Amino acid sequence: MAYQGGGYYQDPNQAYYGGQYPQQPGYNPNYPPQQPGYPPQQPGYPSGGYIPGYPPQQPGYPPQPGYPPQPGFVQPPPAMPGAYGAAYDPETGSVKGFEFNDQSIRRGFIRKVYSILTVQLAITLGFITLFLYHRPTKLWVQNHPEMFWIALGVMVVTLISMACCGDVRRKAPMNFIFLTLFTLAQAFLLGVTTANFSSQEVMLAVGITAAVCLGLTLFAFQTKWDFTVMGGILFVAVLILMLFGLIAIFFPGKTITLVYASAGALIFSIYLVYDTQLMLGGEHKYSISPEEYIFAALNLYLDIVNIFLYILTIIGASRD
After folding, report:
1. Residue 92 belongs to a domain
2. How far apart are CA 272 and CA 278, in angstroms?
3. Which terms are listed as keywords in the entry (predicted)?
4. Considering its fold, how many domains does the chain have in total?
5. Considering the entire predicted model, what is its pTM?
6. Which residue has the higher pLDDT, 83 or 218?
7. For the purposes of burial, counting CB atoms within 10 Å of the CB of 114, is it exposed (0-12), middle (13-18) or buried (19 or more)?
8. b/e for 193-214, b at 16 or more Cβ within 10 A?
């Protein structure tokens, strides 16, 4: 009721308050019609809100947590943490953050690398001995200088192929074929080079090189210093050594030869420690993948050969 003009009257809007609104003209409660084939509501379906445990579990479903394994499914073995790491660089053959957590993997890899290196050094020492003590061989090489250039070409081609092409140094037997050709060519060049020195000088250089390499290897195994972070510094040092060698060609002399050879022996001695720690992995920042055993043996072999050549140059220059 509302008061108006001194009296009360009934408001038509309040007549329906709390009651039922009258049906509008044309309203059809059965519209839209039910689609044919529409499934009727299942009994027990919740009319509102979430009911825990609904729908009920189907009979026969395994109660184990997790998804049930399919027939014939074999659970793969768990991966070894850190066994195969990330950020592999195919150009340099190194892996950042790679670690050997399994001692058997590390020992097997190191054993394989040093086995290959031992065979390489044995072949090289055999060529050096042949050129030093077998005079007909030395005379034959002196009469055929083209053999030197052929060996040099084979060495350069095989070295670039193994250093730049990852498939060449990883896939067997191609990697062993290229490494064998490189070792034979390098050993031949070393034999020709050592033929210009006396046997006493060469044997002295071999002994000093063996002692230096053994000491550096033991140092690389036990030291806490990480030499694997010095790759950039060593690369710059080698470039400076190459420029210094070009200058030494135009200004020959005993003093500049001794300085050049001493600097080269020092740089490649550090390189030997660097490559050894790359092979070891473990706590070092950078390391080489176990698949790169040919690359690791090649690096160590080149380090030892360069140390030998520079030591031989120092001995020859000091006795000249």
Report:
1. no
2. 10
3. Membrane, Transmembrane, Transmembrane helix
4. 1
5. 0.67
6. 218
7. middle
8. bbbebeeebbebbbebbeebbe
* pLDDT attached to residue 26: 65
Q: Is residue 152 one of the residues assigned to a domain?
A: yes
At position 98, the amino acid (one-letter code) is: F
In whole angstroms, what is the distance from residue 134 CA to residue 187 CA?
15
> Is there a contact between 297 and 113 (Cβ–Cβ < 8 Å)?
yes
CA distance 320 to 316: 6
User: Pick from 291, 235, 260, 238: which is nearest to 98 by CA?
Assistant: 291
Arithmetic mean of pLDDT, 213-241: 90
**Cβ atoms of residues 230 and 94 within 8 Å:** no
Q: What is the pLDDT of residues 31-83, one digit of tens each?
A: 666 555 555 555 555 555 555 555 565 555 555 555 555 666 556 555 444 44
Confidence of residue 115 (pLDDT cuts 50, 70, 90): very high
Confidence at residue 83, expressed as pLDDT on a 0 to 100 scale: 42
Widest Cα–Cα separation across the chain: 146
Across the chain, mean pLDDT equals 78
Q: Collapse the DSSP code of 4 into the 3-class scheme (helix H, G, I; strand E, B; otherwise coil) and give the result.
A: strand
Question: Residues 6 or more apart from 234 whose CB is under 8 A from it?
Answer: 267, 270, 271, 274
Low-confidence winner among 284-288, 297-301, 311-315 (lowest mean pLDDT): 284-288
Residue given tokens 């579990």 in the structure block: 57
Rounded-to-integer distance, Cα 28 and Cα 30, Å: 6
Classify residue 13: in a domain, yes or no: no
**43: three-class secondary structure by DSSP:** coil
Alpha carbon of residue 2 to chain centroid: 91
Three-class secondary structure of residue 250 per DSSP: helix
Q: Which two tokens stand for residue 278?
A: 């790359």
Which is higher by pLDDT, 169 or 310? 310
The first and second tokens of residue 53, run together, are 């445990």
Range of the domain at 284: 98-319
Going across the sheet that includes 286-288, the strands are 88-89, 94-96, 286-288
Cα separation, 48 vs 317, in Å, equals: 99
Torsion sign (Cα): 67, 69, 71, 73? positive
